[in-house]
Amino acid sequence: MNFKYGMLTPLLALFGVAVGFPLCYAVYLSVTDYRLTDREPPGFVGAANFVSALSNPAFWEAFTTTAIYVVIAVCGELVIGFALALALHQQRWAKDLSRAIVLAPMFITPIAVGLIFRFLLNDQIGAVPALLHAVGANYDFFGSGRALLTLAFIDIWQWTPFMVLLILAGLESMPKQPMEAARVDGAGPVYRLRRVLIPMLAPVLTVAVLLRGLDALRVFEYVYATTRGGPGTETQTLQYFMYLEGIQFFRLAQASAMAFIVLVLVLAVIVIAFRTIERNKA
Amino acid sequence: MTIPTFGRDSARPKPARWLPAFLATMVLVMSGCAGTGGSGEQESSGVGDVPTDTSGTVRVLMENVPDTDIVKSLVGEFNKKYPDIKVDIETMTFDQMRDRLVSSFQASEPAYDLIVVDNPWMDDFAAAGFLEPLDERIASTTDYRPDDFFPSLTAITDVDGTKYGVPFYNYALGYIYNARDLAAAGLSVPTDLDSLVQTSQRLKSGDRAGIAMQPQRGYKIFEEWANWLFAAGGSIYDQDGNPTLNTEQAARALNAYIETYRTAAPPNSLAWGFDEAFRSVSSGKAASMISYNWNLPALNDPSGASGERAGQFALAPIPGGKSALGLWSWAIPTNSAAPDAAWAFIAWITSPDIDAERVAKGGAVIRQSSLTNQKVLDEGFGAEYYKTVGEILKDAEPLTQGQGGEEMIQAVGTELNDAAAGNKSVEDALRDAQAAVERIQK
Fold it and tell me: What is the pTM of this model?
C-alpha cells in the first residue's frame, strides 16, 4: 500500500469506529423492534418504523415546528450577523476587544444559555420582564404563540456571533477593488451592498446559512431547559420529540428511524445547496 | 500532492508500515470503549440477614439531592457493622439518572450494584427483568418490620404481587403556605377544592401571587393537577386500573385549576416548574404553593432562601385530604455484582432505628414509627410537621400504575398544559388525555 494511503489509515479507522459504527448501528436499530427495556435480541421489522414515523402526525408537527424555528433563527442571525460583521469590518480601533465581546455568547454551553434565559425571562425575578414592567409593558415570553419565537430569539442571541465570524472572514478576504471601483463610478451605499458586496459574499453567506441551519435543526437544550415542548406541543422540536420517543419512552428503534428520515431530508437540502453554489460559480 | 517521505523508503515490506499504526489506533479506540470492570461478581443468595463478615464493594447510583447526602453521612456507621463492605456512592442529576440506569442494566459488566428507582420507572424496570425480587429478603430479615412502612409507599414497590424495591424517600405533595399571610387575610387553611381556589385568589394582593403554580408541560402540571383532581373527588384510575381522566370530577378540577392559574398565580408562569415556584414563595412573591412535604423545612431554614420569611411557612394536607405521591425506592439490579452486600446496606439503612436516625437528620419519612420516634421529634423539624406528613402519607396515590408510566405522564401533562394555555377546551383536553392513556397503557 502506498505510504500516503497508509497515513490515512488511522483517520479512517477512527472515523469508522467513531462515526461509522454508531451510524450503522442506528441503521440496524431502525429496522428492528428494539426497546431500551428489551433484554432479548430484537426482531426484524423491515420498514415498519419508517412507515410508522412517516404516518405519525406528531412527527410532522415536530418537523414543522423545527422548520419554523430554523427559518426564524437563521434569518435573524443572518441579518443581524451581516450588520454586525459590516460594522466590525469598518472598525478602526479596539478591534480585538470588540470582536472578543461579540463572539462570547458562542462559547457558553447551550444548556447553560437555556437556563440563563429561563430565569432572565421569568416574570417575577427576571431582568427583562422587570425592564418591560418599568415602562408599563407586559410580555409572556413562554406563553401560547410566543414560546417558539422566544426560543428562536435565544438561538439568535447565542449563534449570531458564529454568523459574524464567517461573514467577517469573508469580508476581510474579499478584494477591495470592486467596491472602490463601484464607489468611483458613483454607486451609492445601497447599490454597492446589493450589486457588489452581497453577490461577492454569496458563497460565504450560503455556507454560513447552511451551517447554522444544520446546527439549529439540532435544537434540544433550549427546549429542555425552558418549555419542555410546551405550551401543549408548540415548542416540541424534532430532537426533543425523538428524545422522548427513544429515551423517555424506550422506543429506540422508532427514534432511530425518525433520525434517519431527518438525515435524508437534511442531506437532500445540503446537496441542493451545494449544487446551487456550483451552478452559480459556473 | 505527494507527501514527502524524507528518504525513508523502506526496507520493510509495505503492509508492515501501516499495520502498526492501524493496530495502535484500534487498541486505543477499543481500550477507550472498554468498561472499567465489575467489582467481582457474587451470586445472589436471596437471604435477608447478611453475615457481618461479608465483603465486597457496593457501587450505588443516587440522585444529587439532600437525602442522598444524609445517606452518605451514615455510611461510616454502616461500616462499623459491615467493615468489609465498601459503599461507593455516585450521584448525578435526575435527568441523567434514568439513561444511565438503563444503559447499566444492558451492560454485560454490571455498573451498579445498588440503585434508587423513581416510581414511574418501577413497573417498566420490573417487567424488563432489570430488578431483583426482594420479597424473600424482606421477609427473612430479622427485626425489619416491613409493615411499618407506609402502605401507600410499599404499594408502589409492589409489581403484580412481587416487591422489587424498598422505600427510600417519599415525595408526597402538601399545601405549603405563608401562615402570616393567611392570618393577615383572615383566612384559614383550605380544606376543599372551592376553598383552595378562593383562598388562593384572596391571598393575591398587588404583584404578589396567591399561589405559585407549576403548569409546565409534562410531569409538573400533571403532578400538581392530580391534587386538584383528588380534591374534586376524582381519581386517575378506577379500582380495576382503568384510567378515569375524562370525568365530571376531572373537568371540575381542571376548570378550577385554570381559573386559579389565571386569577391567583403569577402572570406569565405557564412554563414554571418547581424551581420557579419555590423561588417565588421563598422570596415572598407568592403566598402558597402545592409542593413536596419536605420543602417546608427548606423554606423555614433561617440560612436558606427565605431570609426574613423563614419560620413563617406551614404545611397542611392537600385540600380534600388526598395527595399525589412520588417515591424513590432502593432496588438491586439483577446484574448487580454484589447483591448480598447491597441488601445488607438496604436492610441496614431502612431498618427502624437507622431510619429514625436518617429522618432525624432531615431525611424524608418512609416508616410510620419514625414519626413518633423521640430522636426525630427532638432533632427533626418539629412534632407538628411530622404529624402532618403522617396525615399526607396516609392517603396518597402515585400518578401512574403499570408500564408506560413516563409516556402516560407526558401525554396527560401535554393535554393539561394545552388547556391551561387556552389552546384547548377542558373537555377536549380531558378526552384526549383519556384516549392517550388508554392507548399507552392498554
Answer: 0.89
